[in-house]
Amino acid sequence: MAVSEAGRRQRAIAAHRRLRTDLTLEAQARLGRPEAVAFEARLDKHLLDIYEPLDELYGPDHDVPALFERLVRSALDAVEQRPIELRELDRRREIDPNWYQRARNVGYVCYVDRYCESLAALPDHLDYLAELGVTYLHLMPLLRPRPGENDGGYAVMDYRSVDPRLGTMDDLEAAGRALRERGMSLCIDLVLNHTAKEHSWAEGWLAGDPDYVDFFTAFPDRTMPDAYERTIMEVFPDRAPGSFTWFEQANGGAGGWVWTTFWSYQWDLNYANPNVLAAMLETILWLANRGVEIFRMDAVPFMWKRLGTSCMNQPEAHTLIQVLHALVKLAAPGVVFKAEAIVAPDELVPYLGGHDRYRPECELAYHNQLMVMLWSSLATGDARLATRSLRRMRPIPADTSWVTYVRCHDDIGWAVDDGDAAAVGFNGSDHRRFLNNFYAGRYSGSFAKGALFQENPATGDARISGSTASLCGIDQALTRADDPAALERALRRFVLLHVVIYAFGGVPLLYMGDELALRNDTAYLDDPALSDDNRWLHRPRMDWSAAERRSNPNSLEGRTFGWLQRLAETRKATLALRTGGESEVIDSGDGRVLAWRRRHPRSGTFAGLANFAAEDVWVDGARFGLHAAGDDRPLETLLSSDGPAQISNGWVRVPGLGFLWLLDP
Ligand code: GLC
Ligand code: GLC
């Protein structure tokens, strides 16, 4: 153990010892003996994961023992205030800590207003979600945003109240209860990299209040901003270029260039100031006590800045999430974190705690790489790049899981590693350009109808907006009365993508409207607060009349909805599709077929095969260890696009744009 690490450990133990007697007495008086004992046990367990990160981040310039005591006391306050039903949930989760890995889990994400108008109406719209097998509901940003433009709610001006358009905090709590009664968990966004410039902390800065001047990062002239901007990437180069914005201060304050990674009204918090960490912890604990079970940790890669770097994925950003995680486990052990880190594959795994020195971080993280690779494979009819890049990813810790998804509310950024591309004979930047052209519908022969997002003329970079259905070709097919097969192909693409996310070994997350194949929606162009941001193209309103057609198995909606139901049911019944443990991506021997295998000690080997090309492909079953070549003993076809698997001499036929979920018992 390095000397500094040993020193940290000793300091942690000393700080704990000083606090312990008082804290025990106090906890017993405030919580009663059983809860106090549980609190103490949790503090023993998480002590190093709380103290060491604080020491790493803030020592020796700050009084770390005092900070430790302050944060532990915040956790104790939160336990005392935690409603009894949430403490009961904590107890269940402590007994069943990997609950989020069960095969029954399916996530759904929606905007409250776009789904059902208001939070008060949400409990009446849960039957619909239950039909899809949903167990986890992510409600898009709903805390009070700034008025006017607010980045779809990602510019929060008050974390302790709800957007009045959607309802009240009481409504949110009631929605959380209604979900829990049905075995569904509530997930909301925690926008912790930045606040709206109307948040009271930012108003404190604008007023020159000394308590808030260090809550944000600001510079008196362009020297530092220019130096940083030499190495940081712009998130919105088209509509919000640069990463700093000038603001004046009142009361004789000098004003400054405030760090604004995203839009100029979103101010990056300065986590080098421990008061910011403390304030954010209190915010999380307060929301957890309102019934939030999963926090989607928004834009976490940006939380720490370092000159000369991209100011993303810095080690301290991880340390910050780790300490917040440990403190939240101390106060509300049932709560889990989901990382939103849309970064290169090599940078992604650490958000699940895959560090050299293991320390828990987030239980869940978006599998951005899988998502990008699905779309890449669909455009090329070729899964080699996917196979290569997924095989190369580092394993994730056993207690964590991916969240697998096809689409979300954001654009698709082409996280294609140049080395991976080269390994399969592509040029990385050409391929990214091809994908943009393909999905923007600019490539001849493209089936997709999307739009470029934030094209950067200086670098040629761009990302893609568009709904799943439109990007899969459903939109285009519906206008092609001359070619009825076009719709069949588009539907097969739609199914193929979902087949992978439901069986890859992660919690599949459905994006509202995809289950009904809702197409691009251009209504946002009429709203001046939205028209600058074409991500609204794929944020439609729920179409309840389309939803009614879901019970007709011959309608478009009935077909997509029905497939998603079958995927969820089969997944739930298949032990190997429990999300703990890795999926092993296998070289199928044919570049067109993505193949992966999952083992479970009690259920045999699962193999998933997805053919991205239009024509049928035969692959050698021996490659998946399914059975020896020449052995035609029937494998169990759990689910497939075209009936039971056809096997001959150990070779398996995968139909064009089709799939097989097989089990070798
Ligand atoms: C996340 C959100 C995105 C938002 C950004 C800034 O990436 O998903 O919609 O623009 O954070 O909060
Ligand atoms: C965040 C997300 C990225 C997205 C951007 C805005 O940076 O991580 O995926 O493109 O926000 O949409």
Protein described:
The chain is α/β, with parallel strands linked by helices and 665 residues long. The protein has a domain of 84 residues: Golgi alpha-mannosidase II (Immunoglobulin-like, Sandwich), CATH 2.60.40. The strands form seven sheets. The chain has an eight-stranded parallel beta barrel with strand order 1-2-5-11-12-13-14-17. The mean pLDDT is 95. The structure holds alpha-D-glucopyranose (GLC) (2 copies). The site of one alpha-D-glucopyranose has 7 residues, from loops.
Overall 3D shape: globular
CATH fold field value of the domain at 581-664: Immunoglobulin-like
**Annotated CATH architecture of the domain at 581-664:** Sandwich
Unreliable parts: none
Please list the strands of the largest sheet in the order they lie side by side: 1-2-5-11-12-13-14-17
Helix content: 25-40%
Q: Main sheet, how many strands, which sense, barrel?
A: 8 strands, parallel, barrel
Q: Give the N-terminus to C-terminus distance in angstroms.
A: 46 Å
